[in-house]
Write a structure and sequence with these properties.
Two copies of one chain form a homodimer.
Chain A (H helix, E strand, L loop, with lengths): L8 H12 L16 H7 L19 E4 L2 E5 L5 E4 L5 H6 L7 H4 L1 E2 L7 E2 L6 E9 L1 H6 L6 H20 L4 E8 L4 E10 L1 E7 L2 H4 L3 H4 L11 E7 L13 E2 L18 E6 L10 H31 L2 H6 L1 H23 L2 H14 L3 H19 L1 H12 L3 H15 L15 H14 L2 H16 L8 H7 L3 H14 L5 H11 L9 H44 L13 E6 L3 E4 L2 E3 L2 E3 H7 L10 H9 L14 E6 L11 E3 L5 E8 L17 E5 H11 L3 H6 L6
Antiparallel strand pairs in A: 1-2, 1-6, 2-3, 3-10, 4-9, 5-9, 6-8, 7-8, 9-10, 10-11, 12-13, 12-18, 14-15, 16-17, 17-20, 18-19, 19-20
Helix pairs in contact in A: 6-21, 9-11, 9-12, 9-14, 9-17, 12-21, 13-21, 14-17, 15-20, 15-21, 16-20, 17-19
Chain lengths: 715, 715
């Protein structure tokens, strides 16, 4: 017999499958972590969970919000590490003729060479996190519906205004567990951010759209920034005189790297999840919402493609909208596919059945009330989807609706105006009205409205709105005639016409006559009525969901599990481990990739066009202390089962000692449905290995001063 | 610490990589196997290698040639197992209105229900295998070039004629090791073959083109046939009175299945390989031949696509040619990619350098002479490629060239005619002339000739042929003018015109006037001259390559390795083991797939439209004795590192006990270059697991009588 037989891979995979299927689900509030000590230690964490409880103390105070993502301080001098794609705007802003920082990357030789970010770029450092539930709910108690909603809304706005009065900070009120608890978050707003180090696009975004959501991955998706403040230590606009910000804490970058099965922990600002939604909401999402979205996106995609067939100009104008529709379609289909694969509706429903059986009295009644309100809202889902798309997938129609709403809101005091139509929103609206020119074609817009309103006409009476029927009729003929008349007569296709009306609307003054404006004047009041009804339902949800959440928490405790609030863009911590992915029969993906994969994927063409210095350095094989001791080569990215969602981009990934061993930048395609359901066999997060960052800084695009600043080996 | 850590997959993969990288290269002649006893035993074989030496004795006499592939007897009553795609013509032949055997499959309830194959379908059973080197080379000794070629050719033809004189057998002379040895192969020609059992297309060809060359795979690519003979036991045409053929041997179907690392052995009729070609030939293949083929295929593809843009009719007529060009292009590019990835040119060149250093005297001189002749031939490569394509990628031009050559050859006695133009080839030629109607468009053919002859015009003078220059000139203008004149004047676009000339040509009579025929009359003599030169070079290669092969064999012996002759459609045996595939960084494919993969891939649309009875049976999970004990489910296909190439389709895959545990049906994409170079980390062969076949027969499309005939468990 041959003695060095191959390992029985098939058997290993079966074993792996069972071991990777253990759940490391949870986007924990830091305050919850001490209570999870045992679970943390069992997973391999070697620090004191108590240290993780306070977001204003080290180490979590090193974790900051940057743009739509996350970042972390990695030196006492305000040096920040985040994703290349999170800092992309900064790199783009500094790219000029003769200095293509996107393609060539950027290495600042010293601090004076660091380049100012675009002036609106912000880094937010959390300085306080306080429970304000009592204040927020004080006026709401005893109320229902719209009154409950308004009480919560006004209290929150008052708290924010009072907090921001101190200056230099941005404040917000976070709603945890769907109205159960409210927290006031105070964040220092750093306004002078500079670019320190960015790899070339072909490293930072190696693989681009083709590799997006894919594993195995080979991108170096990271960038170093530095925060500056005035000489008084306070946030300030850019000035050459500013000094590096003294970070309240910073993360030590690890010198050893992730191995399969290692403990991993991540802190960041996940945007939104729906894990604690009711079984009915799961059922609606899978059985109706997602299929309806896929269907209407397909129809809109087809409409634009048909309209563009004979019109090259329209093709160009709608290229970006088409791409965005295709992405939305892909995501909705992926989410649906994932939820079906995981059997999420069935599992959530069984789970809820168990929970309800253990619920009694007032709690039970309140949950029953909640379910009733949810199904009322759900019954209007198709209409809300279509009306929403009419207002977002068009240019002139959107302009008319926006102008009319702006006119109505602008007649009120600023604080009472609807969010999105306040003083501070006007620049955005003006920008929207200006860009119409590049994105509008009359025939295409009419075709899109024909598609959307045609579907609207098919809705059952209970979902219909009289003014829409009056405006467009109930037949294809009447719709076509109405659209022809509207678009033949409107002058909103001309920028000057839109902007003169914008000038009037922002003053609350009447708008000059136009067929689309006249239509909007009839439709907008109906929209406001629908909004009011929605707010009333939301008020009741805010009032009733806490009963559901409490029942769920009790039920989870009985199951030996803790509950975490759904993501809401506040700082969360998840922990788990470095984990392979076994996505399909006989297919296994190792959790760590190496530079060999860069060479294998490289075609020399975008997006697989690794820069020559990188390819040369790989060929040279001089990896020094950054090489993996087992693999004996340079690693690039790694995979964990950490619980993440959009907003976690740039989140630091910590090892058992709390050192930064990677940077989160994506998740796998199979995890698209994780916003609703965490499937332990499929949910993975994708990270840059800090050793790859260190190697690039040491050997490929050298920045010895940064390695020194982070107290890392020179090579 | 968490105790049930996941297996360190990354480390396992690294280990696997080194263990799978051991070579199990070799398409051995059965006579070589006793000398490989130690290697066979080390690999895990438990039988007596001596038993494998004689192709006319059990077990190898159970392995037969079927169509372009291989098959094996699995019962004493002539029951044969081969691939669905090898028997596809038989299934198609029996598919009629109301009996769609392709889509629905076929299960014969009993022997009288077995369906006759198309009358030209053959199964060949080898009855003798004799070394005839002395006879073949007797007249050749002392000769060179064309004379050597003719002497070998005539001797071979005489041997075949004498052998076939006994009747009922087909004979051939196989050239082993490029002129070193010649074997006379005598094969019983079974002419009454019947269809016994075929799965539906959506099982037999599950995944079709999308999964072609892919792993993991989930096809049940098998079919049962039965050979019949006359009541006298001799081969006979179909007759209801015929009786099942008493097979000289049959293979026992295994009841246990393949596990990762298990010994595996395969016997079949691999078509052609180039492993023992010289380093210069490797260099030319990678550096020139394959890039040139990719380039000219790209140009032809582009030409057809451009021509089809404005002409739907032309698009239809050239669809099949376009597809075939794309396949050829893909294969050439894949072969190139694989050879580059394996660094084959460098490795072969280092290997040869070592060999040459150990070579002296006459042997050394003969090898030097061989190298000179090879580079002469290689210098004409571009021209030969283009002239070849002119004669194969056109319709009217090909017709004219074929008719003229047929006229010339038909004037000779049949035995002296060029292969392809003998009496027995005439039906094929007539068919070719008839199908022109469905595949010809004048503008497209002119565009194709413009592309090919345009490239021809760019060749250096040394590769040019005066009559081609005279016919088409040396500029784009002269070429366009010549083609316009030819195609405006020719009448060969009419079937009757072609067939009337065919009638004359087969008699060796002059052909009626036509511009293309007149052109062919000038070109064909030049082609014959080129053929003569090629045969002269081939004669010298036949004379000189044995010196190279001898040097190689000596060198391999010094390396502790044995040499095997390149594949030439004769029976070969390869052995190795069940092996995973690690095709890219961080990607691992297990060597055994399961029915879970069928469900995962299933879309309900061709080619992933598994039949309902299969899906139901999978859902039911009743796998009985055919389930894998470790995976606890039904397996489908498996992967080995066995050395195969085209022609090995349907080859039985044997386990350590010599039992049939699978049926070869494909290889992986990364192995396309294996015809030149066996890369142990990438060369894999794909097989149906016999347990899947047994399960389908037991539970899904039941055929208990066949299980009984093969002495297999009923479930």
């Amino acid at each position: 017999m041959h003695m060095t037989r191959t390992l029985p891979l098939a058997a290993s995979l079966a074993l792996l499958l069972s071991s990777t299927a253990r759940a490391d689900e949870g986007m924990w509030m830091p305050t919850q972590l001490p209570a999870l000590s045992e679970k943390l230690r069992e997973a391999g964490f070697r620090g004191d969970p108590q240290d993780l409880a306070d977001v204003t103390q080290a180490p979590l105070s090193a974790v900051v919000k940057i743009g739509g993502g996350t970042g972390a301080f990695v030196s006492p001098d305000g040096l920040l590490l985040t994703n290349h794609h999170v800092a992309y705007g900064v790199i783009q802003y500094n790219t000029k003729a003769g200095a293509n920082l996107i393609d060539d990357g950027f290495v600042s030789k010293n601090r004076s060479g660091e380049l100012p970010a675009n002036p609106d770029f912000r880094v937010l450092v959390t300085t306080a996190f306080d429970n304000v539930t009592t204040q927020v709910l004080a006026d709401a108690r005893g109320k229902t519906g719209r009154a409950y909603y308004d009480a919560v809304d006004s209290a929150s706005k008052r708290i924010v205004a009072a907090c921001e009065a101190q200056g230099g900070v941005r404040c917000s009120v976070a709603n945890m567990n769907y109205g159960s608890d409210f927290y006031r978050i105070t964040q220092l707003e750093l306004r002078d951010i500079r670019l320190v180090y960015a790899p070339p696009r072909a490293i930072g975004n190696y693989g681009d759209e083709i590799d997006n959501f894919m594993w195995p991955r080979h991108a170096g998706d990271f960038t170093f920034l530095r925060a500056y403040v005035g000489r008084d230590g306070k946030p300030a606009d850019y000035s050459a005189d500013n000094v590096p910000y003294r970070a309240p804490a910073f993360l030590k970058v690890a010198t050893d790297g992730p191995q399969d099965g290692d403990f991993a922990m991540l802190a960041g600002y996940p945007g939104i999840t729906y894990r604690n939604r009711t079984a009915t909401e799961f059922d609606a999402q899978v059985g109706h919402v997602l299929p309806a979205r896929v269907s209407v996106f397909d129809a809109l995609i087809d409409t634009i493609e048909q309209a563009g067939k004979a019109n090259a100009d329209a093709r160009t104008r709608y290229a970006s909208q088409l791409q965005s529709l295709k992405n939305n379609r892909k995501r909705a289909a992926g989410e649906l596919e994932g939820l079906l694969r995981s059997d999420a509706v069935h599992l959530r429903s069984e789970d809820e059945r168990g929970m309800l059986a253990a619920t009694h009295g007032t709690q039970q009644q309140r949950i029953a009330q909640l379910q009733k309100i949810l199904s009322e809202g759900s019954a209007q889902g198709d209409r809300d989807l279509l009306l929403g798309l009419i207002a977002t997938q068009t240019q002139l129609m959107r302009a008319a609706l926006t102008l009319e709403r702006l006119r109505i809101e602008s007649a009120k005091p600023d604080a009472e105006r609807e969010t999105g139509y306040q003083q501070r929103d006007q620049a955005l609206i003006e920008g929207l009205l200006k860009q119409v020119q590049r994105r509008y074609d009359a025939d295409t817009e009419k075709a899109l409205l024909t598609t959307l309103l045609g579907r609207y006409q098919q809705l059952p009476d209970a979902q219909r709105v009289p003014v829409f029927d009056a405006a467009f009729g109930r037949t294809a003929d009447s719709l076509a005639k109405a659209l022809d008349t509207l678009y033949a007569g409107t002058t909103l296709g001309t920028e000057a016409e839109r902007l003169s009306r914008f000038a009037a609307a922002r003053e609350g003054k009447p708008l000059a006559d136009d067929p689309l404006i006249a239509l909007a004047a009839r439709l907008v009041p109906a929209q406001i009525q629908l909004d009011d009804a929605r707010k009333a339902r939301e008020g009741d949800q805010l009032r009733l969901r806490p009963a559901y959440m409490q029942a769920l928490a009790t039920w989870r405790t009985q199951q030996g599990r803790a509950t975490y609030p759904d993501a809401n863009s506040t700082l969360r911590v998840s922990f788990g481990r470095v984990t392979p992915l076994l996505p399909r029969d006989a297919v296994a993906f190792a959790p760590v990739t190496t530079v060999a994969g860069i060479v294998q994927k490289n075609t020399g063409q975008v997006p697989f066009d690794a820069p020559r210095p990188l390819l040369d350095a790989i060929a040279k094989g001089d990896f020094g202390s950054t090489a993996d001791p087992a693999l004996k080569t340079q690693t690039v990215d790694f995979l964990t089962n950490l619980d993440t969602t959009g907003g976690n981009s740039g989140s630091p990934v910590l090892n058992a000692k709390g050192e930064l061993m990677g940077l989160n930048f994506d998740s796998n395609w199979e995890a698209v449905s994780a916003s609703w359901w965490y499937d332990p066999s499929m949910k993975r997060a994708i990270h840059v290995d800090a050793r790859y960052i260190r190697w690039l800084l040491a050997k490929v695009y050298p920045a010895p001063q940064l390695l020194q600043e982070m107290q890392l080996p020179a090579e």
